[in-house]
TrEMBL record, chain A:
GO terms for biological process: siderophore-iron import into cell. Residues 1-22 are annotated as: Disordered. The lineage of its organism: Bacteria, Bacillati, Actinomycetota, Actinomycetes, Geodermatophilales. It comes from Geodermatophilus amargosae. The keyword Cell cycle does not apply. It is found in: Cell membrane. Belongs to the binding-protein-dependent transport system permease family. FecCD subfamily. Its main location: membrane. InterPro entries: ABC_BtuC-like (IPR037294), ABC_transptr_permease_BtuC (IPR000522). It comes from the Bacteria. This is Iron complex transport system permease protein. Residues 8-20 have a biased composition (Pro residues). One of its GO terms (molecular function) is transmembrane transporter activity. Keywords: Cell membrane, Membrane, Transmembrane, Transmembrane helix, Transport. It is a multi-pass membrane protein.
TrEMBL record, chain B:
This is Iron complex transport system ATP-binding protein. Pfam families: ABC_tran (PF00005). One of its GO terms (cellular component) is plasma membrane. Keywords: ATP-binding, Cell membrane, Ion transport, Iron, Iron transport, Membrane, Nucleotide-binding, Transport. GO terms for biological process: iron ion transport. Its main location: membrane. It is found in: Cell membrane. Signal peptide: none annotated. It is a peripheral membrane protein. Residues 13-253 form the ABC transporter domain. SUPFAM superfamilies: P-loop containing nucleoside triphosphate hydrolases. One of its GO terms (molecular function) is ATP binding.
Amino acid sequence: MTAAAARPAPPRPAAPPAPPGTWRLAHRDRSLLVDRRAATAAAVLAVLVAATVAVGLALGTASVPLNRTLPAAFGVGEARDVLLVQQLRLPRIAAGLAVGAALGVSGVLLQTLARNRLATPDTVGLNDGATAFATASVVAVSTSITPSAFALVGSATAAALALGLAGGAGRRGYRFLVVGLGVGAALGAVTQLMLARAPIDEANQAFPWSVGSLNSRSATSVTVLAVGLAVALPVAVVLGRRLRLLRLADAVVTGLGSRVARVRLAVIGTAVVTAGLAVATAGPLGLVALLAPEIARKAAGPRVVPVVGAALAGALVVLLADLLGRTVAAPLELPAGLVTAVVGGPYLLWLLLTTRTRRMP
Amino acid sequence: MSLLEAPGTQPAVEAADLATEALDLGYDGTRVVHALDLRLPPGRVTAIVGPNGCGKSTLLGALARVHGPQGGAVLLDGRDLATLRPRDAARRIGLLPQQADAPDGLTIRDLVRYGRHPHQGLLRQWSPEDAAAVHRALTAADLLELADRPLDTLSGGQRQRAWIAMVVAQETAVVLLDEPTSALDLGHQLEVLDLVHDLAAQGRTVVLVLHDLSTACRHADHLVAMCEGRVVAEGPPADVVTPGLVRELYGVESVVLRDPTSGTPVVCPVRRVGTR
């Protein structure tokens, strides 16, 4: 028997009490803290999203009873139900889920980075960049490259222009935001110019990118978005934990050993990818990235940066907007972007008029 | 006995030797600190004093890696601070800058938990050491009963103690505090400075930037007087503080008395003389 084997293993310290409002999941030396309120909020939002998906699959110009909807989604039931639910509505709703989630994530990342609720992919020019490039791919440049790739390049270009002109992300990203606003306005003008000069057929084809709608998505862009989200969402969740810290002053964060500049660039990069891919699929759905993080923050409380919550809230907003757009004025269809703008506009106004000079978010 | 049953247990703090070597600091072409050689006595309270804009806060920031040197180096136990990984450096050096603010709705405990960041990781989010350190920090700052109150409901003194508790929970050998008592009334100032004394008594090297020269004399073991980016005097307050120094730093003629209770210098300003 060796000396090492004879010696008893050092006693492992007892599990520490989890801080109030959290659950501690531990295995040996590894531990995770889950915020109870944020987890509950995410669960509730997930249930609401599931319910909206179910209703969205059932309702339409020709409705399918709810009890026949779920089987039909899996291809079981009458041929008519299967056609309506599985072939026509399911892809559209899947696209809505992904677009909403991507915009929600992009919004919550940018808002927290800038500590400003008005900082979203709409306002810092990412959506405008994506729209301009996607429009160009339809009306100006004849190419086989998908609008997805173009939109991604567009939002990255907008971010790169803004970063370059602002000389880096800067303190709290303020400069980046202000310059982004200008870059976005310029790129928005480019889009309008292209639409005005394009032949009417091509302009029509590009029209969805100027309103935002789930009607004209391409299957490829949805696939690309889904793959992008599968990578970006886990990255965003990790970044969200880092961003909790970045809500404090830069000097405090540096003192705590976090690489502020690196986290900031990673956050902007993730926001660019998610916003770009979402716009490529559905065009610039206005204000989703503003509303979704707000809903998630209200629900999840002040301790966390609710990345998952914002993704779910984004999906919820887009699905509800699309559902409203499809049903309210049926058989006329309103683009989802119009609905989000109608709902989000007054909210934005209220926000601008009531925002106190307080630390955000 | 677990650590948690003995909240008063002192954390094991290794003394750290923090020094600067020919340190140049500045922003965009303006040189703020020139060729500074400084050694901060381990396990003691050092106060950095000087007129506004003399480079005190800039120096403190450089000691905590907030800005990199334009020349020279900050040395921690003889090693260039810039070569350490940020997380490793943050386990040795803690900083409380001025004007720290926090998101609305956070509680004291939430804030103090941030201090554990350099000791945590993606898969090590809450260890027994973290729980013990947060508990000790809250105890040291006398905030245990208030721990679950939101920060925005606290008084200025309580809030400042909460921020210091965050740095205490970091359990670093060096603690840097930038004007921790500004904007506090006399009683709250003493609360904070008593806490500072306790930190040094545990073997930590404490560096304060202070506005008030008499407060610095009363509470620091070692005084560093800076003017225009250079150290003009350094040593125990009783040896360093003279009417001549006060004139050099602030352009003020003064009488320097002895504090009847502590024997430390007390500065009574008489009038401005306009050498500055």
